[in-house]
Amino acid sequence: GMNRVPVADRDKKRWTVASTTWHTDEGTIPGEQLPCILAVWVFLDVVEPQGGGTLMLQGSTQQARRIADGSEDVIAHRRLVRELSEQDVWVSDLMSKARQGSTEQNMQRFLQDGTECNGIRMVVAENTGQPGDLVIFDPRILHAEVSRNTSEVPRSIIRIDYARRELSEGVEEHCTPTLQRIIKQMREQDQLGMETVSYTHLRAHETPEHLVCRLLLEKKKKENYEKITKHKLNYKLRCTRR
After folding, report:
1. What is the pLDDT of residues 42-68, one digit of tens each?
2. What confidence tens digit (pLDDT) does each residue in 105-155 have?
């Protein structure tokens, strides 16, 4: 799916490191090195620093695996945020609405200085790139999509999600609703004998301006899916009559 972020109104609010909406798209399973779902971002426009790119907390995937390996449970983002906030005041401040310090001080602290927790370095990174660049995204990383675009032009990125056909037990209930729909679609396609899996991903990183666009795309996707299903059923009936 394509995500297009408009230019922000700079007179109302300056760019700052997000303190809310930090989450993972997939839970972390004990003993699993790789995610069950993998995302690829394709840049269509130049996305510069402070250009509306998703913020990612580097090192959080390793932290999630560390916590999961010491537990028998799948680690969802709420537990990950809670435990990291309890272990490191830097993480607690990053995700606090009552954050102290100026915008410049917080940018230095979270984008440059970072922290080291349990021997793992963590620092916030912006998702930036040039047209044609690809970013392979592990959905288990903590990330925040509330980032203002202070550049002169809107930016567009396509996101493509790939899912395993055989998912580990317990992971689905700790995925975002968007990824749960991907899994459901994959299973429905398997039942119909379809070989490809595709999904228009917009909800997790959309802005209010794109709500109508997303609904229209999902309506079109549903209509196409119903046409394919009807065609396959008609074909089976014709074969049976012969």
Report:
1. 888 888 898 888 999 999 999 999 999
2. 999 999 999 999 999 999 999 999 999 999 998 989 999 977 778 877 777
SS3 28: strand
The two tokens of residue 170 are: 């317990």
Starting at the edge strand that comes first in sequence, how are the strands of the sheet with 115-117 ordered?
A: 115-117, 120-126, 55-58, 143-144
Q: What angle do CA 98, 60, 158 make, to 5 degrees?
A: 95
What SS3 class is residue 115? strand
Rounded distance between C-alpha atoms, residue 77 and residue 84, angstroms: 10
The enclosing H or E element of 184 equals helix 177-191
122 CB-contact burial (10 Å; exposed 0-12 / middle 13-18 / buried 19+): buried
Question: Rounded to whole angstroms, how far apart are CA atoms 93 and 217?
Answer: 38
Q: Please give the Cα distance from 76 to 157 (Å, whole number).
A: 26
Q: 3: alpha, beta or left, given left = phi > 0 and alpha = psi -120 to 50?
A: beta
pTM: 0.70
User: Is the distance from CB of 168 to CB of 48 less than 8 angstroms?
Assistant: no
Q: Rounded to 5, what percent of the chain is helix, strand, coil? A: 40, 20, 40
| Separation between Cα atoms, residue 160 and residue 200, nearest integer Å | 8
